[in-house]
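Working notes for the structural subgroup meeting. M.R. asked for a predicted model of this chain before we commit to crystallization trials. I am recording the input and output together here so anyone reviewing the notebook later can reproduce the run.

Input as submitted:
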Amino acid sequence: QVQLVESGGGLVQAGGSLRLSCAASGSIFSIYRMGWYRQAPGKQRELVARITSGGRINYADSVKGRFTISRDDAGNTVYLQMNSLEPEDSAVYYCNADSYPSYGMVYWGKGTLVTVSS
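Returned structure, recorded in token form:
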């Protein structure tokens, strides 16, 4: 099992920045990929950014050039640096971890709220 704990959400004005953190614990060796998803009221959860154990990164088109995903050397913590925030970025941000296929597990954090005021 893997536990994910997010932190760093909050209220920020448009154009501002926030940094989200996600700390993983438990069976960390089983994790292939970690990332961030978000869900705004009335909308489906969507991918924001993710990074594999090999360092391959994907971003949603809507955040390219503004958000940066990174991780610490131990691979236990993943960060999401969010710059030039827009009201449309307001959502609950969820940390996600996908295990290697042999384990077949998907893990989610409880989420952290990001609110961008105009």
